[in-house]
Design a protein that fits this description.
The protein has strands at 8-9, 13-15, 24-29, 33-37, 42-45, 49-53, 62-64, 82-88, 93-97, 101-105, 114-117, 123-127, 131-135, 148-151. With 159 residues, the protein is an all-beta fold.
Length: 159
């Protein structure tokens, strides 16, 4: 499914509306878990994540540990449609699928936990320590195309 919607930046997050309606067309497993979506988008998880359905309060979900190929719980995502995707400036990722599954991946203190890349140069990376780096084809954040826009942690802005 093609969409003309661009990712949109908000105070504490990026809404990835461009992923809405995309199907998980392929799942690859090595030391990472890769979900290939329609139209050239790819979600790559390298850190432990949680896959749940319903409320996280009542169902904390199943752990996914890509480093050890412990990701069998993610196989039902094949063919699922993305309902929403949010990249938080804290480095966390939240995705919701039409199957009722929720994928949550937190930032890692030591390495890049996840990344999302797409056509025309879009790229979102959860940086070590909880920052979010964004590459955009249009120079989001006032940067020229292809340059990194690094977002400072919200608590660091209060100092």
């Amino acid at each position: 499914m093609s969409t003309d919607r661009e990712p949109s930046e908000h105070e504490d997050r990026w809404i990835l509306g461009c992923l809405r309606g995309m199907d998980v067309a392929r799942i690859c497993i090595d030391f990472r878990l890769t979900l290939t979506l329609d139209d050239g988008w790819e979600v790559v998880l390298e850190a432990p994540a949680q896959l749940s359905s319903g409320s996280l309060l009542t169902n904390p979900g199943l752990p996914l540990t890509p480093e050890f190929q412990d990701v069998a719980a993610a196989l039902p995502l094949f063919g699922a449609k993305v309902l929403s995707a949010v990249a938080f400036k804290s480095g966390d990722l939240r995705m919701v699928f039409d199957s009722g599954m929720h994928l949550n991946c937190s930032a890692d203190p030591s390495f890049e936990a996840w990344q999302i890349s797409g056509p025309r140069g879009w790229r979102f990376v959860s940086e070590p320590g909880g920052d979010l780096a964004v590459w955009s084809p249009t120079g989001a954040g006032g940067n020229p195309p292809g340059r990194t826009t690094e977002v400072v942690k919200p608590e660091a802005e209060c100092r």
